[in-house]
Amino acid sequence: MRIPGNLLIAILLFFSLKTNAQSLNPPSDLRVDLLLNADKVWKNGLPVGLSLQQAKQSGSTYQMARIANQNPYFSWVITDNSSGSFQTAYRLLVASSVENLKANKGDLWDSGKVLKNQQTGISYKGRKLRPNTVYYWKVKVWNHKQTESDFSKRTAFLTDSTLKPYQTAHQPLIRSLENPVVSKQLNNLNTFYDFGKDAFAQVKVRVSSAADGDTLKVHVGEAIDAEGQVERKPRGTIRYRLLKLPLQKGEHSYDLKFPADQRNTGPKAILMPHYIGEVLPFRYVELENSNNKIIEVQRYTVNYPFNDQASSFKSSDTLLNQIWALSKHTIKATSFTGFYVDGDRERIPYEADALINQLSHYASDAEFNMAKRSLDYLIYHATWPTEWSLQNLQIAWNDYLYSGDIRAVKSLYPQLKPKLLLALARPDGLISTRTGKQDSTFTKSIHFSTFNGETVLKDIVDWPQKGGFGLPESYPGETDGFVFTNYNSVVNAFHYQALVCMSDLAQALGEKKDAALYKRQANQVKQAFQKSFIDPETGTVKDGETTPHSSLHANMLALAFNLVPENNKASVIAHIRTRGMACSVYGSQFLLDALYNANEAEYGLQLLTSTDKRSWYNMLRTGSTMTTEAWDTDYKNNQDWNHAWGAAPANVIVRKLMGIEPLSPAFQTIQIKPQPGTLNSARIQLSTLYGKINVAFNKTPAQFQLKTSIPPNTTAVVYLPKQTEKDQLLLNGKSLKATPEGNFWVIKNVKSGPQTWQVKY
């Protein structure tokens, strides 16, 4: 029988569409030891088109990631957008050559078909890896319908010269060549260039000179004056440099060198690698008028590899959008050392900076190893504030919760224990640095030595304290008049939170006795805290046992860490509202956490978008394009314009306003709990090890609409705003039942894929 041509085409098309409908795209975003693009190669920070093997054999010096772990971890993203999709099996191949991998021969390791849904933290179980060797790998998966994908694109990694049980992997620092967005001649006939945003960078110029020996004067800075020139005498530590460039006859390109700054290249600073050289944060370049022909002015920006497409946010509030962009850019730009440092003035890692930087980095990019490296560094290079030692435990918990990789914590576990400062505790569990217990055994246990003249830990509360830097002694500082006593409520709030984190970490490590011990100690501290620091008359939290003073800090930290009894929350919140932003940019992290944790979204949004002097808007108004160290130079006379501890909005917008937080390691279980306050609409994208999370809401008086999309192999707990018991709930247009919980409707075990939720009032 002969089939007519048009019928044959229809049959073939039918089977083609059926096959495509059942196909499963290969995995993407392959990582080794959490690193994306471990097969990339750079020279002097600039990308080159070489493979790892070519770079290794060339004899030249190149930069690439090196994997030092004897048994590295592998992970990937499943590219299946169908509803409820999850992985049921995988097969992973590791080979010694491209040819073997092409032939599907895993001569180092062929996992076979492994019947697991695990797609992160897959430990290498093949033949022993050799140092200084390139290996190639790929993976395929099966989904819940037993559909098999093709193998992923191959990727590669290079082992380090020495292999160890564990060492955090990292990428090299990279450079990117940028052109100015504006160039113009000034009234003084100098030529002015604006690169649009401040960044840690180096200047590159191309000049034609008629003779040898001429000098080109180049002004480089972060700020401009009233005449539109580069500010020659900026306030605080806002950066400016004058570079004098000797010219050669003819047309030449010049890479200008910044001299080292003694303050930020000292023994405690993170130094720039030789293949990068010195950098300076700047936005503007001004060339003095001369007889030379300026052909081109560019800059090399320097940062740790950063995926600009990993996250996005846009809302109905244009100021909030600007604050998000300010904070996100800050995280990228201040990664210029590969560690979380305190900005350009010192380039020293501090625990408080690292904690905020870590959370905002996770909110901006799915990058986890800079936090691990910074934690490892800080454990062995302690700074002087009491609270910041305790913050190591929060950093460690965040590391595990967001990355799902506990190896760094496991390797540091014995060193994390002393950071709880239990040696400073009295019988009821409260700790004090002022009761003579800081002997040499204690300071040695926490790896503390003299720091800025301090020989023991001291309570800080916030920074700067009374008197400030270069300000009158009468200046109140950023502590809201906090009264320091022997037993301090802020210190003990951090102590409690550190114990909670340590208990959870011990549980994750299988240290059950430790987990139970730290949980008991946390409960003991909570009881002692409430007994010692809550004022029975006002219901608010006092600064210390022997003072009635109740600062913003005492109350916001107790609220943030769930130390306030339910009956006292109304009093504490009311008191917090009277204080405004009476804390530093660092303190704002905990203030906003406290407000959103207490469902005070409207006030939280009010502070985020405030146009007062103590606001992120003021940073924009003053001309900075990175978050600043203080709300204004008037509050800290030596402040800089490149401080990531001011970038709390990046993580607060993601974690609290849009409500996206991990409930289990690496976001395998996701919380989506938007708290819009007065915001009418917003949408966000967040990248995780499992893939992208997308959340968008639109709010009117009549209804709240939420659109969510979560990656395969994950589930979510979704919270919808509740007005009354008569609210009508819909999921994808169909009636939905949910559990009421306070001001929310809660839906658990939400499957992967796109969903549309509605609450009609």
UniProtKB/TrEMBL annotation:
<dbReference type="InterPro" id="IPR035398">
    <property type="entry name" value="Bac_rhamnosid_C"/>
</dbReference>
<keyword id="KW-0378">Hydrolase</keyword>
<feature type="domain" description="Alpha-L-rhamnosidase six-hairpin glycosidase">
    <location>
        <begin position="308"/>
        <end position="655"/>
    </location>
</feature>
<feature type="signal peptide">
    <location>
        <begin position="1"/>
        <end position="21"/>
    </location>
</feature>
<keyword id="KW-0732">Signal</keyword>
<dbReference type="GO" id="GO:0030596">
    <property type="term" value="F:alpha-L-rhamnosidase activity"/>
</dbReference>
<dbReference type="InterPro" id="IPR012341">
    <property type="entry name" value="6hp_glycosidase-like_sf"/>
</dbReference>
<dbReference type="InterPro" id="IPR035396">
    <property type="entry name" value="Bac_rhamnosid6H"/>
</dbReference>
<dbReference type="InterPro" id="IPR013783">
    <property type="entry name" value="Ig-like_fold"/>
</dbReference>
<dbReference type="Pfam" id="PF17389">
    <property type="entry name" value="Bac_rhamnosid6H"/>
</dbReference>
<dbReference type="InterPro" id="IPR016007">
    <property type="entry name" value="Alpha_rhamnosid"/>
</dbReference>
<feature type="domain" description="Alpha-L-rhamnosidase C-terminal">
    <location>
        <begin position="659"/>
        <end position="726"/>
    </location>
</feature>
<dbReference type="GO" id="GO:0005975">
    <property type="term" value="P:carbohydrate metabolic process"/>
</dbReference>
<dbReference type="Pfam" id="PF17390">
    <property type="entry name" value="Bac_rhamnosid_C"/>
</dbReference>
<dbReference type="InterPro" id="IPR008928">
    <property type="entry name" value="6-hairpin_glycosidase_sf"/>
</dbReference>
<dbReference type="Pfam" id="PF25788">
    <property type="entry name" value="Ig_Rha78A_N"/>
</dbReference>
<protein>
    <recommendedName>
        <fullName>alpha-L-rhamnosidase</fullName>
        <ecNumber>3.2.1.40</ecNumber>
    </recommendedName>
</protein>
